[in-house]
Amino acid sequence: MAENSEYAIEMLGITKRFPGIIANDNVTIQLKKGEIHALLGENGAGKSTLMSVLFGLYQAEEGVIKKDGKEVQINNPNDANDLGIGMVHQHFKLVQCFSVLDNIILGVETVKNGFLQKDVARKKILELSEKYGLKVDPDAKIEDITVGMQQRTEILKMLYRDNEILIFDEPTAVLTPAEIDELMQIMKNLAKEGKSILFISHKLAEIMSVADRCSVLRRGKYIGTVNISETNQEELSKMMIGRDVQLVATKEDKTPGEVILHVENMTVPSKLHKNNAVKDVSFDVREGEIVCIAGIDGNGQTELVYGLSGLENITSGKITLSGKDITHASIRERSTSGMSHIPEDRHKHGLVLDYSLAYNLVLQRYFEPEFSSKFGFLKKNDINKYADKLIEQYDIRSSQGAETVTRSMSGGNQQKAIIAREIDKDPNLLIAVQPTRGLDVGAIEYIHRQLIARRDEGHAVLLVSLELEEVMSISDRILVMYEGEIVGEFDPKKTTPEELGLYMAGAKRKEVGA
Amino acid sequence: MVLLLQYTLLFASVLILVALGGCFSEHSGVINLGLEGIMVMGALGGALTLKYIDPSLPKIIIVLAVLLISVLCGAVYSMLLAFACINFKADQTLVGTALNLLAAAAATVIAKSINIIEDPNNVSSTVQYVEAKKALVVSIGKFQFNWFMLIAFLALVCAYMVLYKTRFGLRLMACGEHPQAADSVGINVYTMRWAGVLISGMLAGVGGIVYITAGVSEWKFENGVAGFGFLALAVMIFGQWKPVNIGLAALLFGFFRALSNVYSGFDFLAALNIPGSVYNMMPYIISLIVLAFTSANSRAPKAEGIPYDKGSR
Amino acid sequence: MSAEIKKTAEKESFLAKPAVQSIIASLLCIIVGLLIGYVALLFINAQGATDAIITIIKNYFTYPTKAAALKYCGNTLVKAAPLLMCALSIQFCYQAGLFNIGAAGQYVVGAGASLFCALKLGLPWHACLLAALVAGGVYGVFVGVLKAYLNVNEVISGIMLNWIGLYSVNMMLNCVKETASPYTVSLEKTNASAVLPSLGLEKLFSNNKYVTIAIPLAVIIAILLKVILSMTVFGYEIKATGIAKDAAKYSGMKEKRNVILTLFIGGALAGIGAAFLFLTGYEQWSVTQSSVPGMGFNGIAATFLGGLDPIGTIFASYFIQHITSGGSYLDKNAYPSQISDFISAIIIYLCGFVLFFKFFLNSRIVNKKNNAEGGNK
Amino acid sequence: GSKAPDASATTETSSADAKADNADASDAGEPESDIKVAMVTDYGDITDQSFNQSTYEACQAFCDENKLGFTYYKPEGDSTAERVAQIDKAVADGYNVIVMPGYAFAEAIVETAEMYPDVKFVALDVSEFDLEGESSDFNSETYPNVFSAVYQEELPGYMAGYAAVKMGFTKLGFLGGMAVPAVIRYGYGFVQGADAAAKETGASVELNYAYGNQFYGDADITAAMDTWYQGGTEVVFACGGGIFTSAGEAAAKANGKVIGVDVDQAATIDGKFGKGMTVTSAMKGLKATVNTLLTAIVGGKWDEYAGKISNLGLVSGDDTSLNYVGLPEETTLWNDTFKKEDYLKLVADMANGTIKVSNDTNAEKPSAENIKINYQGNIK
Ligand SMILES: Nc1ncnc2c1ncn2[C@@H]1O[C@H](COP(=O)(O)OP(=O)(O)OP(=O)(O)O)[C@@H](O)[C@H]1O
Ligand SMILES: Nc1ncnc2c1ncn2[C@@H]1O[C@H](COP(=O)(O)OP(=O)(O)OP(=O)(O)O)[C@@H](O)[C@H]1O
Ligand SMILES: [Mg+2]
Ligand SMILES: [Mg+2]
């Protein structure tokens, strides 16, 4: 009696517990055939967990999953695969040293006499890539290609397996605006082909533009499902957070003061290629302004920040911080001279993941007399007290307070911890690199407010962001980077995203006097 | 000259086999520090086979029997590693070290017990196999060809093919690089790691018997395999976890090892009057220097040493 | 809440302490290891097995007189001290994310330096100790520099340097060996001032002349390391560098310097370990040894049995030495002397399961707690 | 295999010191059960195919025959402290005769002999200089309960070297185990013998000289031996435990010859590598000594040995069966240029002092006048 059910997938009453937390509490979502169904929720709301249950990575304690109206058991990714379910994970599951092709065929290889038949696979991949407009080089190594291309690889992985149900867990968090547009188009194409898509994103605009329906989770609980055509961003964010959220940051006008950061003809070599990643760049950041470096990922922003923070040596140029030449200063010196740095990669640089939250909160200050005695002993009590203060002040949520191992905290809260640490140092210059990446709107709102507060207190903020919306809403001045150079300087009030986009893509440039 | 070649190939064969063993294990994500111990166990199995087999059997049968039993012993012993490290997420360095200590002790205890059973007055841990051992070598002129040289070469070719050309190899390496990714495409990481460790056991087991039969016709198991397992590990890292490079590294290392033993046959070397100790140190010093220049971009399998936990991401 | 529930709750929280769990786990390893050893003994010779296992456990208590027992208790301690130092060396580096298999070689050069200073240069014990410290440390620095600046895997360079160290020390000590034997000349006779002082400690051990301040010093060093690792800025940095090199760099720690410094300290610990043995006169160096002394490798075992904790390692080192010494009193006609090595190897193997055991214990506790809470609701 | 070369000599042998008394063991006053013999090994095990093993086998055979309690102890490691520990343990376990093979026991004797005046210590290879240092004034009162036998290994070494060159070999090799005193003495004797013979025959003789640095063979040492044999070496004196395996292995490939050590190894070596490989063996009478001493102890004649250190070598120039060192008369491959008679004459000359052999153990790296020595140090 498997009369054609309206739903491709139904997850009914799913409950999934982790030690100390109910990640999904009786959640129900139903995915119609051929629809794009968005899943929305704060960080840690349980979206990834729910999808992992669907994909067979976790087993739910309670609840049933139905495919085409029939109850199914999904005990592992193989089962999911057999049912035609594919997933693009939040953190890509790609083998870095394999080629695109190897990654795509992994697990479903064609073999003849025990040997891989890569040519057959290559043909199929090129066909798929043609059909859906997913441009990839099958023989490039993952470690050498852009994040966008990696994502296309992930999508091809699903298509290669002829999956009918596609799960995208925060696919846009790591993409450039252009790539996002591209992805949106691809998703629409896929839906048109009859595939059913589950789509997780924190970006309401995206959801509004591609999704047909949206289900909302809050703290593990199912809140409801709405038709996108019948709702708006404000309503969605209210459903998700439980209160009104200010989606666009507001700030008072302010006249910039003294120069805090002065960069002159800075050049930074690249680790990836022979050319310099940053070429002869000069600019200033003043008291009471937020300067934003905009640009498409991979145009030297990362290296620019490495050069400023001392993670990378610069080959030429001069950096001055509050009048002090720090061109050759060590990382520690820069930090103690009043520079704070919210790093791009919070897991690699920002945190010692196996340390407690308290220890991480003093990562930049543990050596100060406040936290260690003359004889080199840590003042544990003071550290804990300080941590408790920051936790309270910045609302960092974790299961065991200051004692929590940071690895077990949610990404949003990890980010909050870093921000708390860096801001509480009271720096003259705060360098924030993509501080809101992957965070929910509530958290973004919070972080934006913090950045603006720094500015309002008369300090300098250098923000590096890939998101035009963010750039436009909080910066006082925008510098666009393209291929290692600053190709334009803008006042956000006097420009449009379209104009910025042209500069970011390298189609236009104007000379900038530093 | 012939001798230098012969012993270079002989030592290289041992190193190739064992290093390839390490290579399979590490590509699956398990660091196998217990190679030394596995060698001892493989050697014990092979030595006992040689001891008890009828030396008048056709040579090929003897060679195959020895090969089979060493493979088996190595594989069985490596299960201890697989079991602890894969299923119970034990620390791989620790278990590897324990296996080395255990093998040295166990092999001696076993060899002694067997000897005592045969002859209560024979309390030695020596296993003798003079007659049967002759089956392992063929003299080609002055050059003594050892069948295991061929086996090592074949192992090298196979390892290359398996790792780079087959489904198994692709999946194995995925488990050592990114087990979560492998898991998410339905590959059973535990099974693949077991396979990797078992293969490493097989190869190291053969390496063990090759080592102890390389020069003599009896072996005293108290002496273990004198650090060869660790050398093989060095060769593996030196060879950047790639079969072809491992082959070359093993040859280089084997060459210096052989040279330190046969240098007196070269008049110009003998004339230099360099102390023997210097020759003995040579292989280590040379590889250290080479490593210093080549390691900058060295990359171990990313996930090696980290127990795979389905839950973590 | 009834008193009973409270009591079980207390018990659980006691069991939930990591230190308690480590101890229970280590004890479990020991018990299971001894059991397996017993089974092996039964296999080899069923009659004497019980006696044999008791002999191993009794070690010096097998001597009939208290005086002799004390004396040989001293011997066990004398050997446990260097073992502890090697274990600490490996552990310290392990905390910093480095597997210092080179401890064996650092031990060797420590022995070489201390004996050379004592026998050839006639220096007093403190100078010899210092020489061992520096030699071991510098030898560790080789590994560190190769690692920090040239990305050479520390396991490999460690193994290579072990051998290089062995041959070099053999050559170096050739000048202070006895004319008619491969041993270095007697420390006591050649340079009594180089023998570590005992401060009267030997009186506690039936005048065992090998009992010196090395033993208490080793324990003190262990405690010191515990303090350094868990309570100081330096420990904080070292561990951060070990767990997250990039984060350490980001926070301004000098991660290269830390790697090198860690290996210096690790090497120094192993070097001192050697001095702790050779400067008692307990052992003479044999310049013809062709394999690296096992002390450094055994340290790996002791560290893990000690739950990667300096204090635990004190007990673990003692225990391993205890059963090793005990094994030498086995009836050699019935059992191969390697059986005690066999038992310690089994115990070390079982240490691998400690993590799982702790996990098991924890999940039991959590389950119980959940059940209890569920019941209360 | 004829493991006990001078077994014939053994049972009835009386050492130089014991010559006067040839009393039978059976009329001993004490009951047999009072005597319990313990052997303590040095750094090797009783399986070293050398010192420890020969001693062990001799003790065990004797004790079995005479129904004496016997066991052996193996120290935990290679140190005086650990050897003392086992001696203490043996005494504590009620053993009153301690047999200790190896010069390494000197210190241990110094530490324990006085402590246990009622225990009889039988040491092998421990010289007075080992005990007392260079300026020894050793006398029978120094250690009244210790007897030590030191062998003049240089003598059989000399005989072997002399024989080899006389037999016509011109390219020799000496492969020592480790450079320990006994091995060094063998080697130095070997060089002197070859040197003397070369002087007589006028042949130009070359001698490769190296230590394996271990008492067992392996691929490395076989490789070195292959180099020797294939480089023209005709005969190698494999001097140390099981190291002959490497020499034999290499010799077999090149039709080379081997000289055995300690006991008549002809059967062992030939059995493994083919008939006629073993030219001769440089032997010393370990078993004889053990038997003599234990017989004396059982027979209540300990006093004749107590407190003494005997230099065991040649006793008689005529009756070789009385000697503690020599070449095997049965299995040596005598030929026209070196007949058994020549050997007997050599022994006589050595016994009467016509031929003097130096036992300088400092000569780890020996030199000679008439032959060319290629010293190669340690192979490993
Ligand atoms: N393996 C795990 N063990 C324990 N707790 C977990 C585990 N995985 C997830 N959690 C917890 O479950 C909750 C939900 O996590 P989930 O990953 O589903 O959140 P999310 O909605 O995807 O968040 P984000 O927007 O940050 O991706 C979190 O509180 C998290 O701490
Ligand atoms: N082993 C674990 N134990 C407890 N919680 C875990 C564990 N692994 C993951 N989590 C939790 O699962 C949640 C989701 O993890 P995920 O890696 O998806 O991070 P995230 O919150 O989405 O971060 P990001 O924003 O960087 O993507 C996090 O809240 C994290 O705390
Ligand atoms: Mg998520
Ligand atoms: Mg996220």
Automatic annotation (TrEMBL), chain A:
SMART domains in UniProt: AAA
CDD domains the record matches: ABC_Carb_Monos_I (cd03216), ABC_Carb_Monos_II (cd03215)
Domain of life of the organism encoding this protein: Bacteria
Membrane topology label: Peripheral membrane protein
A GO molecular-function annotation: ATP hydrolysis activity
UniProt entry keywords in alphabetical sequence: ATP-binding, Cell membrane, Membrane, Nucleotide-binding, Repeat, Sugar transport, Translocase, Transport
Domain (ABC transporter): residue spans on this chain: 9-244, 261-508
Subcellular location: Cell membrane
Entry-linked Pfam families: ABC_tran
The name this protein goes by in its record: Simple sugar transport system ATP-binding protein
Organism: Butyrivibrio hungatei
From TrEMBL, chain B:
Highest taxon of source: Bacteria
GO cellular component: plasma membrane
First-listed, main subcellular location of the protein, grouped into a coarse class: membrane
Signal peptide: none
Coiled-coil portions: none
Membrane-spanning residues: 60-86, 98-117, 145-163, 194-212, 224-241, 248-266, 278-296
Cellular compartments annotated: Cell membrane
Keywords: Cell membrane, Membrane, Sugar transport, Transmembrane, Transmembrane helix, Transport
GO molecular function, one term: transmembrane transporter activity
PANTHER family: GUANOSINE ABC TRANSPORTER PERMEASE PROTEIN NUPQ (PTHR43370:SF1), SUGAR ABC TRANSPORTER INTEGRAL MEMBRANE PROTEIN-RELATED (PTHR43370)
Protein name: Simple sugar transport system permease protein
Automatic annotation (TrEMBL), chain C:
Protein name from the UniProt record: Simple sugar transport system permease protein
Pfam families: BPD_transp_2
One example GO MF annotation: transmembrane transporter activity
Location in or out of the cell: Cell membrane
One GO cellular component term: plasma membrane
Membrane topology field: Multi-pass membrane protein
Record's keyword annotation contains Membrane: yes
Keyword tags: Cell membrane, Membrane, Sugar transport, Transmembrane, Transmembrane helix, Transport
